[in-house]
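User: Once you have settled down, look closely at the record that follows, taking as long as you need, and be ready to discuss the fold:
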Amino acid sequence: MSAAGHAPLDVYFALMEASARHLLRFEERHALRTDNSVADNVGWLDFSHALTFGHALRSQCARQPHLWPRGLLQLAMFVGRNSGYLDPDKFAYTAIRQWTVTDETPFHERAIASILDHGVGQPIFPRIG
């Protein structure tokens, strides 16, 4: 997609969709490699960071719209970098179908229960002093 002439939010949504699809298609064997260069160290954080950056970008640009061009360029850089680490045998529609939630209410209840009670009896607090 050429971004020229498109509204910033249109470009943003296209890049966020690409980032989300990339997260579904990440080939985890890249994260487990030990024979690669430092520049090729990649993991789940590289893929999730595109989404968290994108969320922050939209919040910031709602207040300061002049930042859209630079922010969208950075988001596009995430998409471009991550493109080389996708599973070539998993297409987006297959990944979406694989991760589709068919039981939304029970899924939501299980997710909230595991988020709120993840088996840790007491939180760990840093010791000061």
Remarks:
- Residues 44-63 form the longest helix (20 residues).
- DSSP finds five helices and no strands in the chain.
- Residues 30 and 40 are 8 Å apart (CA to CA).
